[in-house]
């Protein structure tokens, strides 16, 4: 049986997910061996449990100190699952990977996840819905049955949020050619708050509009102030923004308040609003047809498509995506061709000889690969 | 051709690393008096790599190059990414 070996706890999720998809077992050594509290952390155990629920026959062996794990994947089942995510990491940490697996399950996935809906570092559920869903939709070919419902919001550190994620499964994914991002035509967003004054959302919206309205007038931000048992256990607020282009590319960014007891002091809504706007502009500067959070998912779906060429334009690759591409090579023996895209040029006028390059931010890359012809054998044909 | 190479980042070797740019590495080793090689840089790189394997696993992109720009410069650099900016020669409706 083929087995891959790795060291360290970084890239933990992608290793297990790619192992599950490729059916190869994986062994990871040296999980935090030098820390005071060595080995796997609770949220990683929680992630393994989640994988266990989605699959059938998965075997995981962890040594006594927790510094070594051997993971032997089973078959992807899907169906209805229910999982309490450990609150050390937000639901986005788990959901991001679930999105990679969902199209390849036997039964359509219907997952209820509980925990922190939004925190620093990891994408929030709003961001995944606004920026990763459109990419998933392209590869699935339809958004029928694709759903992410936030029934309760829960801020860090105590959580108490709940989301429902539904995704249809496919026998084969469609190859995708997506090379023209188009122009940004509108900006949408969600400003949310729980267990704080409802005025906070309006302050968030006002401050972010003050920055974004200089670029575009079509800015609309929904406000979502949740109350009572829908508001989780901790106070918090945040803002997720998404820029939509004429060709259906979505670039998103977000900002969230400091968690209570995080030692960073309380956040001010005006600052959060401004920061979110600036990070959206930075994301636009990075650009591409898929947002930075969706890069890795797009790459994975390109590889796991039919034996056909897929081409997607992306902005500068994030360190995470670079790691992901390396792991894809390990598990599927597929390398991407990565080329710099030509800058678009302005229409030339008669008196100019040199065509003027458009100011669309950083260099854009074109990722090309041939799918491995992956087909979902476990899906029942009806 | 060499000038061109330094200007352009080789994205393929950025991702797939060592085997793509083995030949370049040999040049970066500095000889002192023809006998000794400076290995300091390499050793530092290895230590860094050792640390990186146990970093936090998250997909957030972290600080980017463009974060050094202030808002106005940033705005200027991306103004043609919006519908209100200039369109490409190929798509301009005129």
Distance between the termini of chain B: 39 Å
First and last CA, distance of chain A = 32 Å
Q: What would the average pLDDT of chain A be, to the nearest integer?
A: 92
Q: What structural class do the secondary elements of chain A suggest?
A: alpha+beta
Name the poorly predicted regions of chain A. none
Shape verdict of chain B: elongated
Structure description:
The complex is a heterodimer of chains A (382) and B (94). By secondary structure, chain A is an alpha+beta fold. Among the domains of chain A are: 1-76, Translation Initiation Factor IF3 (2-Layer Sandwich), CATH 3.30.110; 184-286, Dihydrodipicolinate Reductase, domain 2 (2-Layer Sandwich). Helices cover 28% and strands 27% of the residues of chain A. Chain A has 8 helices and 18 strands. Chain A has helices at 12-22, 42-54, 91-101, 125-140, 199-212, 269-286, 295-303, 319-332, and strands spanning 3-7, 25-29, 55-56, 59-62, 69-72, 75-76, 78-84, 107-115, 147-152, 161-167, 177-178, 184-194, 219-226, 236-245, 250-256, 309-314, 337-340, 365-370. In chain A, the strands form 5 sheets. A 4-stranded mixed sheet of chain A has the order 1-2-5-4, covered by helices on one side. Chain A has a 4-stranded mixed sheet with strand order 7-8-10-9, covered by helices on one side. In chain A, a hairpin with a 6-residue loop joins β4 and β5. In chain A, α1 (12-22) packs parallel to α2, α4 runs parallel beside α7 and α5 (199-212) packs across α6 (269-286). The longest helix of chain A has 18 residues, at 269-286. The two termini of chain A are 32 Å apart. The mean pLDDT of chain A is 92. With 94 residues, chain B is mostly helical. Chain B has one domain. Helices cover 41% and strands 4% of the residues of chain B. Chain B has a two-stranded antiparallel sheet. The radius of gyration of chain B is 21 Å and the shape is elongated. The two termini of chain B are 39 Å apart. The interface between A and B is large, with 65 and 44 residues.
